[in-house]
Amino acid sequence: MKHKLLNGFIASVALSTLILAARLLANIPAPLEAVYKELTHFLGVPAMFQFIHRLLGFGQAGKVVAFVGSATLWVGGVALAGLLAPIPAAALVALVSVILVGPLWGLVWGAVYLGLRFALEPIRTSVDRRGVLNSLGLGAAGLFGAGIVAAVQPLFAGKSAPVSAAPNGSSSAVKLADGITSQNDLYYVSINNEALDPKIKEADWTLQVDGLVTTKKSFTLQALKDEFQMQSQEFTLACISNPIGGDLIGNCVWGGLRVKDLLQSVGVKAGAKFIQWEAADGFYESLPLGMALEEDVLLAYSINGEALNAKHGFPLRVILPGHFGMKQPRWLTKITLTAEEKPGFWADRGWSRTAYVQPLSRIDAPAALEGLKAGAVTTVHGIAYAGSKPVTGVQVSTDDGKTWLEASLIAPRSKNTWTRWTLNWTPTAGAHTLKVRCVAGDTAQSGKDSDSLPEAASGYHRVSVTAG
């Protein structure tokens, strides 16, 4: 029994190492990644998502834990197949893999497992088989562990780690206007562990447009650039999971083509009511067709004058004013026009179906717990944002909401961007709690404290400071 389990463990770890290497190096479908996606489907429901992020924060930690757990489940399950003879064990591995990744690669991984099992069988007759098996087990575990470390490396890199260079070799070290977020500083959130995100080569990529269109077409990136006039707009992108006062928000200048122009080129058939987006990472979303035909809805291929990098969706992503980022897929590969709506990736998990941005505001300075000089003027400043609705007022309280002062607004350059605000304040000695709120037309920011999901966080950002 021990011999069979050890043999099965070695075969399982060796197979999983090959699968992980093939996925990271050649983007070959990996059964253990499919297990990960099923697990994160469960973990993505709002209540579980909030629980995990209260424990681990909003970075990569939750995804890393889920990935390591998924890999452990896969390796352990395949290791138990060692209790069976090689052929029935391989048939079982192939069957499970076919279910997870489809017939072609499912059968390939089953065949690889069979080869590994047959390769290990001769060791039974070796006088030193226990030592050999132990060595193989340790070696295989070491190799797989190295692969896991490579897959979860972004966790250890930290939030400030730079993103990869843009495909054209440029970096984000460009001179930016005030209030513009560099590509390297723009927040990043993904449905995957970062190492599993798409790394697309322009030569291998096309955008498919089909469904209720007059002419189904496929476009290369260069064809999109050549055929459609480039549009540029300053636009603020925010994540629906951003906590009050959080930094999952950024403001950039996006360049690309209008969705309206693309659809005009292929023709829209009668009966088309929705547009569906599909992305290389498995993400999907939909939108009423009328919204997609608005002038400022873009398919973007540049940010702040440089190509999108791999992290932010190269070669093409959706930019949709008025909505949180969950409605704006990166690594776009397919557009389909349909008569019926298909809920999006996150809506399928119980999140908002519309993901409209509601008024929000943040204090950027002074920082929490910062010591200020009593009697000296301090400039309090930050940002306010309400999607496509213009921010018409920002009020700041320096006494925990008892009284409110009107802040000065810096006029935004675009209707789809955040508004920066400032307030000069002379603190008295002692502790102070600052709060901020904003209003967009007749819509005031909600002061009710609520979690980020499923409809985005609400409440006023608070910052405690001391003057002396």
What's the story with the biggest beta sheet?
A: 6 strands, mixed
The fraction of residues in strands falls at 15-25%
Helix content: 25-40%
- How many strands? 20
**H-E order:** HHHHHHHEEHEEHEEHEEEEEEEEEEEEEE
Q: What sort of overall outline do the alpha carbons produce when their principal axes are compared?
A: globular
Number of helices: 10
SS content category: alpha+beta
**What number of structural domains do the residues give?**
3
- Gyration radius from CA atoms, angstroms: 26 Å
Poorly predicted ranges (pLDDT <50, ≥5 residues)?
154-172
Averaged pLDDT: 86
Termini Cα gap = 72 Å
Outline the fold blueprint:
Layout: H1 2-26, H2 31-43, H3 46-56, H4 61-80, H5 86-101, H6 103-120, H7 129-157, E1 207-211, E2 217-219, H8 221-227, E3 231-238, E4 249-258, H9 259-266, E5 274-279, E6 284-288, H10 289-292, E7 298-303, E8 306-307, E9 317-319, E10 332-338, E11 360-365, E12 371-372, E13 378-385, E14 393-397, E15 405-406, E16 408-410, E17 419-425, E18 430-440, E19 443-444, E20 461-467
Parallel strand pairs: 1-10, 12-20
Antiparallel strand pairs: 1-2, 3-4, 4-7, 5-6, 5-10, 7-8, 7-9, 11-13, 13-17, 14-15, 14-18, 16-17, 18-19, 18-20
